[in-house]
Amino acid sequence: MPASHASASRSRHARALPRKAGASSALRYGRLAAMGVVALVILVAGVWGSWGCAQHVMLSKGREQGTMTVSRCEGTVCWGPYEPVSVGSTARQRVSIEHSVAVRTGETYSVVVKPGSSDVVRTGPAGLLHAWVPLGGALLLSSVVVAGGLRMRRSAWVLGGAGLALITAAWVAL
To answer: Contact at 8 Å (CB) between 86 and 66?
Structure first.
């Protein structure tokens, strides 16, 4: 092979490499962006799922507060009488609370009434931690996406550790 032909062949390959490197770089950034969006959507969904109950626990000032004694549970709901503790709150014969591992028949719990309904949510540390459990699950799930999709292992360990700590604290507090 003549020298001029070999150098022309090398220069053609040299020109082809930057295009290929540019394409792989674009794919890499596209993957990073997509995985970042997936991780963010998971975290937003966790906050959204938690906020429905957490807002009543965290922002309970000015709401009806009292105690509920669980008298009966059926399916996913438990019922019982409500005794007011805060000023302006009225006693009710029957309020409902979500049936979960945090609620047992015969037990009395500090609760806050959701405005405009007869539904109540547990208050105190146990109620607060229980309300944020969906966020703990989202932190665990997003840690897998961050580790595998974004290849950010340290950040994934932090997210997973925070999720595990939140779920464990909620379980211990119950």
So the answer is: yes
